Amino acid sequence: MNRALLRRAAIRAARLLLNVARPALRQPRLKRLIHAALSLAPGLRQRLLALAASSAPLPPRRSHVPLDSADLSPVVQQHYDALRRRFDARNH
Amino acid sequence: MRIVIDLQGAQTASRFRGIGRYTMALTRGIVRHAAHHEVWLVLNGALEESVLELRRTFAGLVPPERIRVFEPPGRVAERDPHARARARAAEILREHFIALLAPDVVLVTSLFEGYVDDAVGSVGRFVDGARSAVILYDLIPLLNADTYLSTPVLQQFYMRKIDSLRRAGMLLAISDYAREEAIQALGLAPQAIQAISTAVDETFTPTLLDPDALESIRRRFGVTRAMVMCAPGGYDPRKNIFGLVKAFGLLPPPIRASHQLLIASRLSPVERAELEAHAVRCKLDPADLVLTGYVSDADLIGLYQAAALFVFPSLHEGFGLPVLEAMACGAPAIGSNSTSIPEVIGLEEAMFDPHDPQAIADKIAAVLSDPALHARLRAHGPLQAEKFSWDHTARRALRALEALAASQPAPAAPSYEALLDALAAVPDLAHDDITTLYLATCLAGMPDLAAQPRVYIDVGACGASILKTLSAWQSTNPHMSFEPLMLSNAGGVWHYRYADSETAYALGLRQSSHTKCVASLRFGDLLITCSNSPTTSTAHQSGLYTHLYRSGINMIFSVDRKRDIPVGPDNILDLAHQLIETEKDLRIVLDNCFGCNKI
């Protein structure tokens, strides 16, 4: 079994578990217990925080324009095309 | 000399701590003493809740055109592994953004940000850092890596910041001790780092509050006896709060019986439970220990003034601001004989060995049982605090920045092509549509000091009389033009688009070269719209106008005073650069805009 596949499955399972357990995790007593337990394992704490950060929704769009590369302002379009050319050149 | 100050130290979670206070006080001091120098501020748009506040704080102190907002390309907090490549790209983009402001020197107020917040900080990653100065608070994580850099990701994050520190042309240390520590730990040349010291805010004074106010503060925090106080400024192990609690338990019974130990600090429920359990282990009664939680500055001053003794038992500090604040308020203060704290306290008999709880207890007991020593400490505090002032610190910082500008050639801003090459070279930077779009939006927001502000009209919101005035104006001033815009909710987000040619023609306005496509409003541009229109209100509720305000768009709202003007915390008119009520007002705006070529 491929390690990457296993990792992805583990992350997906952790996310599912997180969604199910979320209401319980809001209880202050349980929160305290988890914090105390995780402070003994900083590596695990770090990984869980990273998982929480990566599964959180993207921050609100601050630029107030549609998030659609087919509908850009002329200025953004110029930069977009220039970047695309660079990335394409990098990847070929 | 143009000084560009990166103000992120006052934007992240650090704004609630010493770094935030330092950043704000030093920046205000530099602005006060800048004389013929220009001070520019760069904010991070991702830390959006602070942008509005900082724009308002510096209104009247720094001209609005000198407060610029950098927008990182999406989420860049390095705690998120998916954001790390974007964070590298953001460093390049931020350095380029600052270089385009043509600074003579750059001052970075807090470099070690961006692990949990979307802050971006680097020096010399893309633009030469020889003319950059960085405030150095301490190197505590580097010197206590086991405690503070417990994971490889944190270590990599911190060491990248250390590399940036090394590339900076100058470091400005907050104390002599922090300077010496950096010279030794980083092997820096002594001339590359200047100590500029620190001070307390002028609200921290020994002028006593009236007895009723003091009693009210004591009651509110549950203080019933004379109080031994500590404001540790955090809950790190190095703050040695546990050592202090243990020392309190070792005090002679009569002193313990007549005093309470008050710890003024923001505490999480876990931290509070830990401290209470530790107090029980040290044989303290529950009433012996008062944990206040977060305390406002006004209450903190009252508590300092009400304290029988202030104790600062920290094991390691870059400066140790709380003890200076307590001394400035007239509290008799004692503290550790380690790191920077002796430099702050400045009195041998007020110090103890923080590693030995018995030594702490002996010093507390000595002060509380010796009225002469108590009086000497009380008299010493305000005199010592007077030696530190923000004016003095700001002048030292300015002298250091002047020397930096004189000693190094100014780096040129790299070309656009070089910028694109650097972005394409960022390892693992995704080249998907969304990342490219974020990067392109960020590039479109780069400053252009030579650009003339453009005038946009929201033709969907402005009333007929305004449009008629504008049309008449345009026909008599053919070389001056407005861009007609309309609000749109295409894609589910409120934004502006160029009006179509038919609408522009029907309104008697010259049509734009772009029709119907998304409009990019830039810093300094002018937008004339109407606050009473229903679509304007809906777009405002979505945050559009707050975003435009934060981005430095000057908004002119046409208002009808006879109708209700909205009030409340989200009042759109608070964001107005100017309000116009009559045709005459509009003509004055246009005169100012086109006649003087600026607003």
Compact overview of the structure:
The complex is a heterodimer of chains A (92) and B (599). Chain A contains 4 helices and no strands.
Describe the 3D structure.
By secondary structure, chain A is mostly helical. Helices cover 73% and strands 0% of the residues of chain A. Chain A contains four helices and no strands. Chain A is elongated. By secondary structure, chain B is of the alpha/beta class. Chain B has 24 helices and 19 strands. In chain B, helix 13 (321-328) crosses helix 16 (371-386) and helix 15 (357-369) crosses helix 16 (371-386). The interface between A and B is large, with 43 and 54 residues.
User: What is the rounded distance between the termini of chain B?
Assistant: 24 Å
Order of helices and strands of chain A: HHHH
- Estimate what percentage of residues of chain B fall within beta strands: 5-15%
Continuous helix count of chain A: 4
Quick one: how many beta strands of chain A?
0
**Count of β-strands of chain B:** 19
Through-space gap between termini of chain A: 31 Å
Strand order of the largest sheet of chain B: 3-2-1-4-5-6-7
Mean pLDDT of chain B: 90
Low-confidence stretches of chain B: none
What value does the average pLDDT of chain A take?
Answer: 75
Helix content estimate of chain B: 40-55%
